[in-house]
C-alpha cells in the first residue's frame, strides 16, 4: 500500500508540473509594466440617493430575460439591483477634476473603471494618491480601500497555435463520450442526455481568466457561444489569447466531439466572462468577479460556472483568515451569496488548497446558497489538493464532488489533455445542473440546489471532506418528476 501511495503521489506531482508547464506555454520572459505606477481604490458608498432608476421599471437596466427569471421564481427586484447613483458618480468626477486642475498639467490621470450595483461600490484608477484620499472624504463614501497596485513587470504576449485536428490516439472508438465517459458517468449525467436533456434553452456564464483560442479551436465551432466580455482593467487586446484555463473549463461543458469528448451541457448557451488578472493576484479581482456576476444577471444567465477562488494576495499578507469563511466577509463571497436570491445558481470550485497551509475552501466557495464542488480521483476518493470545510458558521462544504484528478479536457492548443483541479470538476456539475433545470424550469434556483444535494451519495451523513457526496443527476431527475 505504501508503494502504491508513493506512486500515486509521484504521479500527481508529475501531472501538476506538467499542468504548470502547459499553463506557462505561450508566455515569454517578463517585460517592464507599461505606463508607470498606478493604483486602484474601491469606494463603498453609503446609499443610492439620486439614482434616476426605479425598481418599478427594472427593464431600463436589466434585460427582459433577467426580469422574467426573477418573476418565474417569485423573486423581487430590490434596491441592491439599482445601479450606483449617478449623482455620486458626478461628485467623484467633480472632486477628481479639482485635483487634476490644481496639479501640473498632465501629471495626474484618473478614471472610474467600474461599479458594482449589489455592493454599491466604485473602482477608481489613478497615479495620484492625493486624489484617492480626497475622494475618501466625500460625504457619500462609507469606506475606501486600495485594492490594486501596478506590478513592476508583466508577461509579454505570445500567440499560441491551434491544432486543426485531434490526434489519432485522442479518439476512443468504443465510447460516444470518448475521453469524457468516466467523468459524466460518475454523475449519471449520460442518462439525462439519453432523454434529450443536454442544456438546451439554458444560459451559462463562465467566469474565468482566459479562453485561449476558443474562437479558433475546431471543437468549439459548433458550441453556442453567444457573447464575451472582459472585466479586467485594462481589457486584453487579445481576448482569445489569454490563459487557456477557461478553455479547459468550457470544454468540460460545451465540447461535442463524439468519440473524443462530449461535455455535460453541449446544447447550452455560453457567455465567456474574463474577470481574473493573470499578471497579479490582488483584491481588485473580487471586484472584477462581482461585476462579471452582475453582468451575468443583467443578461439573463441561469447558471454561473466559476472556477476561481482567493485567499492570499500579492503584497497583502494576512488579508484573509479562516475565520472570514462565513459567506459574507469577503466582497466576492457576499456577492456570491446574493445570486440565488436573484434566481441564479452559482457552481464554484472548492479550491486547490488542501495540501497547503490554508487547507480549506477558498473565497467565494464559502458563500451561502451555492454549489461548491470538490475533486475526486478515479477511485472516487477525494483528491488531496481539494479544499475542505466547514465554513466558519458551521455549514457543510464542499457541497458535492466530481472527477478532477484528473479530468479530460481540451487545451488552448485544441488537443485532449488531462488536468487536475477543482477547477475542472466544477463545470461538469454546472453543465448537468443546466440539464436538470432544463427538465424543471418551474423550479427555483434554491429548489434545484436542494435537489442536487439531497440526491447525492452522502446526503444522509454529510462531512467536510466530501460534503453531501457525489451527485446522481438521474436520481435528481426522477425525484424531481415525483415532486413535479
Features of the shown structure:
alpha/beta, Alpha-Beta Plaits, Rossmann fold, 2 domains, seven-stranded parallel β-sheet, four-stranded antiparallel β-sheet, 17 strands, 29% helix
Explain the overall architecture:
The chain is an alpha/beta fold. It has 2 domains: 39-153, 2-Layer Sandwich (Alpha-Beta Plaits), CATH 3.30.70; 159-483, Rossmann fold. Helix content is 29%, strand content 19%. The protein is built from 12 helices and 17 strands. A 7-stranded parallel sheet has the order 8-11-7-12-13-14-15, sandwiched between helices. A 4-stranded antiparallel sheet has the order 3-4-2-5, with helices on both faces. Strands 1-6 form a two-stranded antiparallel ribbon. Strand 16 and strand 17 (416-419) form a beta hairpin. Helix 3 packs across helix 4 (129-136), helix 7 packs parallel to helix 10 and helix 8 runs parallel beside helix 9 (331-338). The radius of gyration is 22 Å and the shape is globular. The termini are far apart. Mean pLDDT is 92; it is low at 1-26.
Amino acid at each position: 500500500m505504501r508503494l502504491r501511495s508513493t506512486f500515486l503521489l509521484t504521479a500527481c506531482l508529475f501531472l501538476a508540473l506538467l499542468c504548470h508547464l502547459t499553463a506557462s506555454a505561450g508566455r515569454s520572459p517578463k517585460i517592464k509594466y507599461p505606463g508607470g505606477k498606478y493604483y486602484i481604490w474601491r469606494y463603498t458608498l453609503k446609499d443610492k440617493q439620486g439614482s434616476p432608476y426605479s425598481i418599478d421599471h427594472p427593464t431600463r437596466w436589466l434585460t427582459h430575460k433577467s426580469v422574467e427569471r426573477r418573476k418565474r421564481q417569485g423573486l423581487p427586484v430590490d434596491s441592491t439591483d439599482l445601479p450606483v447613483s449617478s449623482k455620486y458618480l458626478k461628485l467623484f468626477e467633480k472632486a477628481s477634476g479639482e485635483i487634476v486642475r490644481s496639479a501640473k498639467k498632465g501629471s495626474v490621470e484618473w478614471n472610474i473603471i467600474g461599479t458594482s450595483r449589489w455592493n454599491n461600490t466604485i473602482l477608481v484608477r489613478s497615479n495620484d494618491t492625493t486624489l484617492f484620499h480626497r475622494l475618501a472624504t466625500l460625504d457619500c463614501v462609507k469606506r475606501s480601500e486600495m485594492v490594486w497596485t501596478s506590478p513592476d513587470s508583466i508577461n509579454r504576449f505570445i500567440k499560441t497555435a491551434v491544432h486543426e485536428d485531434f490526434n489519432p490516439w485522442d479518439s476512443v472508438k468504443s465510447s460516444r463520450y470518448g475521453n469524457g465517459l468516466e467523468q459524466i458517468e460518475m454523475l449519471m449525467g449520460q442518462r439525462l442526455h439519453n432523454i434529450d436533456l443536454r442544456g438546451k434553452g439554458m444560459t451559462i456564464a463562465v467566469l474565468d481568466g482566459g479562453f485561449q483560442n476558443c474562437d479558433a479551436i475546431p471543437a468549439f465551432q459548433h458550441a453556442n457561444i453567444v457573447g464575451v466580455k472582459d472585466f479586467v482593467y485594462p481589457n486584453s487586446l487579445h481576448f482569445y489569447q489569454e490563459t487557456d484555463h477557461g478553455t479547459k473549463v468550457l470544454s468540460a461543458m460545451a465540447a461535442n466531439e463524439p468519440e473524443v469528448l462530449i461535455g455535460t451541457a453541449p446544447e447550452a448557451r455560453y457567455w465567456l466572462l474574463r474577470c481574473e488578472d493573470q499578471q497579479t493576484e490582488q483584491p481588485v479581482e473580487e471586484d472584477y468577479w462581482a461585476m462579471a456576476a452582475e453582468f451575468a444577471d443583467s443578461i439573463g444567465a441561469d447558471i454561473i460556472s466559476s472556477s476561481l477562488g482567493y485567499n492570499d494576495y500579492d503584497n497583502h499578507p494576512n488579508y484573509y483568515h479562516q475565520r472570514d469563511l462565513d459567506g459574507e466577509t469577503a466582497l466576492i463571497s457576499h456577492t456570491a451569496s446574493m445570486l440565488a436570491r436573484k434566481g441564479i445558481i452559482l457552481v464554484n470550485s472548492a479550491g486547490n488548497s488542501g495540501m497547503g497551509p490554508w487547507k480549506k475552501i477558498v473565497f467565494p466557495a464559502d458563500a451561502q446558497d451555492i454549489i461548491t464542488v470538490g475533486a475526486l480521483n478515479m477511485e472516487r476518493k477525494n483528491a488531496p489538493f481539494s479544499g475542505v470545510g466547514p465554513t466558519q458558521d458551521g455549514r457543510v462544504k464542499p457541497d458535492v464532488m466530481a472527477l478532477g484528478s484528473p479530468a479530460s479536457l481540451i487545451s488552448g492548443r485544441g488537443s485532449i489533455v488531462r488536468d487536475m483541479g477543482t477547477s475542472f470538476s466544477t463545470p461538469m456539475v454546472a453543465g448537468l445542473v443546466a440539464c436538470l433545470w432544463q427538465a424543471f424550469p418551474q423550479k427555483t434556483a434554491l429548489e434545484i440546489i436542494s435537489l442536487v444535494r439531497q440526491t447525492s451519495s452522502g446526503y444522509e451523513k454529510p462531512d467536510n471532506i466530501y460534503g453531501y457526496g457525489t451527485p446522481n443527476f438521474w436520481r435528481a431527475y426522477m425525484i424531481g418528476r415525483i415532486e413535479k
